[in-house]
Design goal:
about 200 residues, alpha/beta, Rossmann fold, 3-stranded antiparallel beta sheet, 10 strands, about 25% helix
Length: about 200
């Protein structure tokens, strides 16, 4: 799905807002971004001096990321991989970042597989930062309904979460704090849930 979407011209422009978790990261940390796509979050972290390894399932997305990094004079360390089955040994990373990954997966089984892998590759007390679209977002309900609050638009799936659902998925493995991010635009309310998670020992 994602390879086709990127080859059709899908792009996520600009740089992501990483300020909500940036202070938790240090340049010497081993940081992994899963579902890095064409680099919206990855490049924002690199511009702040964070050394991060990006993993994505789409070869085309990583090629775009590499070009975007070069245009900014940055080196991109990335590799093709599936966040549901990471190749890394247990407890390899100080932090894992997954921005709009859990809400882009097709099933709860896929999401559970990703969360399990994140917990596995994190060091003791390692942190997981994730963001998903909220049910309050103006796009919720638009497109072809797949199930519950999952919709397909332009060949891409999006699932919209409430806080209870997100907390339920994360709290078995992590201590979790969730923030609501709401931005009112002229065209509607943009809303997401941001979770700061610390791996339970």
């Amino acid at each position: 799905m994602w390879e086709k979407a990127y080859r059709r011209g899908l792009r996520f422009g600009g740089l992501a807002d990483v300020n909500w978790f940036l202070e938790s990261l240090q340049p010497e940390m081993n940081v992994l971004e899963i579902g890095c796509g064409n680099g919206k979050t990855y490049l924002a972290l690199r511009k702040h001096g964070i050394a991060v390894l990006g993993v994505d399932i789409s070869e085309e997305a990583l090629a775009i990321l590499a070009r975007n990094a070069a245009a900014l004079g940055l080196h991109a360390a990335t590799e093709i991989g599936d966040a549901r089955k990471l190749r890394f040994p247990d407890r390899s990373f100080d932090a894992v970042v997954g921005i709009h990954l859990l809400d882009a997966l097709e099933t709860d089984a896929d999401r559970e597989a990703v969360i399990s892998e994140v917990s596995r590759v994190l060091k003791s007390n390692g942190q997981f930062f994730c963001e998903v679209f909220c049910v309050e977002d103006f796009r919720n309900g638009k497109g072809r309904r797949i199930c519950q609050t999952t919709y397909e638009r332009g060949g891409v799936l999006t699932t919209y979460f409430d806080e209870e659902r997100l907390m339920g998925m994360l709290s078995d493995r992590f201590d979790v704090r969730i923030q609501h991010q709401r931005v009112q635009r002229s065209y509607g309310l943009r809303c997401s849930l941001r979770a700061m998670c610390r791996r339970k020992t």
